Amino acid sequence: MRRLTQIALGVLLALCPYPVAANPEPQTAAEAAPQAAAPPASEALPTTAPTADLKDRKSGPVEWVRTLQLLQDRIAAGSLAAHKSQPILIARIEGDLLNAAPEVWTDRHNVQAAIVFALSGGGPAILRRLTKQDSPETPETDLARGALAYIDGQEAEAGRLLRNVDTAALPTTLAGAIALTQAALTVTENPVRAIALLDRVRLLMPGTLVEEGALRREIFALGQGGDLKKFEVLAIQYLRRFQHSIYAGNFRQRFAYQLTQLDFGRDETRFASFTRIMNELAPESRRDLYLLIARTAVQAGKTNAALMASDKALVLCAPESPEATQAQLYRAAAEIVTLATFQTALRKLQAVDRAKLPAHDVQLLDAALSMAEQIGRGLARTPAQPDAEASKRTQAQTVAADEPGSLIPKAEAMIGQVDQLLRKSNP
Predict the structure, then answer these.
(1) May I ask which residue range the UniProt record assigns to the signal sequence (predicted)?
(2) CA distance 184 to 164
(3) Residue, of 111 and 299, whose pLDDT is higher
(4) Is 163 strand, coil or helix?
(5) Where are the domains of the chain?
(6) Are residues 341 and 354 in contact, defined by beta-carbon separation less than 8 angstroms?
């Protein structure tokens, strides 16, 4: 076992500018910072790129791409060092692929590895080389052409070449890369097939960055399709297994938006599912996601979701903390859209300590105060104004109100044009 570990590390050190972190937990800023000391002599890298003498080195495209995948799996586990290393390693592998001797590409396994490399963030350069008109035709040529079309954004051509490929006949790593591409090409027109493809990818590539990406995509496809039971199961799976992924932050932002669109406060079943998902997180992470959901709900015009999420966040916030201030802001921004809570919400907004808010929330506070001022003018307006003039002025004020987002669409269109000018002045 020790010998195998040494071999694996040797492969990584032969291609990486520094060792890949072994710790699956996210590193602190200090741990991730570049070290001033030089690496030990045993870990020093050659100053020139590896040669393309693959027979002598017993190395080639397959081994290089495996090394990249090992690095990417560390990214899925949360290694900042691996994430920082990735562009350097990709550039180095690309150079080796482009400099490889022509006979290298007579081995179909090397062509397959090049396709995987390109679809794993490596870019199109090697595929352009392999699909030139004077290149020999192989069983992988159409796969390479399809992958190149996909990378170049030519989805129709990529679909023609890849959509009906039977991935069951392909090696596992290539099958995972092609199936993930097929899912991306079909998710809009045929989400059911895309979900089935993503299921297959997850089974083929467990514990890898490929599985992590497939899981993220499938969760959002399920949320849009309305399969709440499977959505819940996979969301919990992601939060349990990939909560430290470098891409988890992006996932949580999109996930917050997805939850607001699902309107989880609509009924008990949805709310219970939402609660089970959130309970997978540690209290601090749960608080942060509640805050993100509350802010997203304010921007998306989901009043009930904003109120519910901000209340949940407040329970987890320390008194007078910046997080508590954010939660109070989001709640007040949601409360100004109804006449019954308008005055209370206005006082809350005026009492918010903007010094505790991040810059984007200062903008939200200013937008909410501006909207509240417009609504206040409507409430104070005398009923003697002609209805047409009142409506025109109210609409102009609505358009003039500040962003960001739609601020629970323009404070519910100025609280129903200030409740139809207080029901035509309470006749």
Answers:
(1) 1-22
(2) 13
(3) 111
(4) coil
(5) 1-20+59-96+111-127
(6) no
